[in-house]
Amino acid sequence: MKKILSLALLLVLGMASANALHPMISNADAQKEVEALERQRFEAQVKKDYAFLEKVFADDLVYTHSNGKQNGKADYIQSIRDGKSQYDKIEIEALNVRAYADGKTAVVNGTILITLPNKPDGTANLAHLKYVVVQVKDRKKGWQVVLWQSQKQAS
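RESULT FIELD:
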């Protein structure tokens, strides 16, 4: 019995020292980081900042557009390069970040208004979307988007 208690104590002390070396980020800090990243990512999509997008999108990204089409990371970034995904402006209307106790997972949902290039007849081309994003925090790469899903919001 003493051996089991001693082993349990060593295990607890080992976990405590490991957490001291790699302290968990608080939920409030994680929420702030993820919210800032969301805003920066939208800006990078408009400005075509490919280096930032390469960093912030995980290699296993699943990006589901409001029309149901899915892209992986390379395909989605290439669609911006090719002009298939164009954004003149992205306005955040609502943004809700939920960070979880592990400090490495966050779910974001919100609504955005995307201004796209004008339609051929010159009229404004707007997309009003509801969206959900899942972000995970990698030790080396930081927060990364692993999932994006959107749907058109009724007018």
